[in-house]
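re: ur question from the group chat, yeah i did fold both. here u go
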Amino acid sequence: MLLIFDIYINYMNESNRKYLWQCIQKAGDYLNGQLPSHPNHPNGRNPYAHVAICIKNKFNISYKDIDDNKLEEVLGYIEYLKDNPQKLFLYSHILSEYLFNAVIFFIGILIFLLYISLFNQFISSI
């Protein structure tokens, strides 16, 4: 447990972390050769990194730092990745959900500022 600005952050205990890593390795073994090809990976993709990156993108934190209470949710997500190797790959490597939300937020701010600017021009022309 870590105290940062009066917020407690729980990390996964060592035994759960080791168990989760074993599950990631088994999923990587299962996904070996199933991920779509890509010109940036001429020798093939690393399925272990794929699973770890997908977990990080979904939970916005490394698998090692996820709370113990989310272990079952992470294990369920790993099973989902195994069942859908083609489906999530593009999402996980183009834009994470976190980055996507940030982009949408800043676009909203730009539209708001444009609206204010146009409104001020309209008021000053009256």
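okk and heres the other one u asked abt
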Amino acid sequence: MTKGNDKLTRILTSRLFTVIVLVLITFLGTSLYKDRIRREEVQNEIEKLRMETEELKGKNLELSKLITILETSNYIEKEARKNLGLKKPGETVVSIPENARPTKGRVAGVATRLEKSPSNPVQWFNYFFANKKR
């Protein structure tokens, strides 16, 4: 028995055994470290996807509310009147093109009040200084 114990003691104290144990410990340590890094990356990805899911649920809720509004008869009627020129019986539709603007204060050839009267400071000047006939 001492021969077996002596052989085991010699193997355990040899440099080759020490190197093999250090290599195994290094290999296991790097494997565990890589596994931990990968686990953190997966957790971060899961959290990112959860946040994105919550954001998409919010957008989905907004869109479903918008669909509900767009499907109402009031909205459909409003859009039909605005875009298609539809009218109820007894109504008269007046359509004014968006690019039809009055030129220089004139509406349909009639001078506006702004063109007829001078500006406010000019009126005050005329009131105090120009129109003195006494």
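fwiw on the second one: The two ends are 146 Å apart (CA to CA). Residues 2-97 form one domain. idk if thats what u expected
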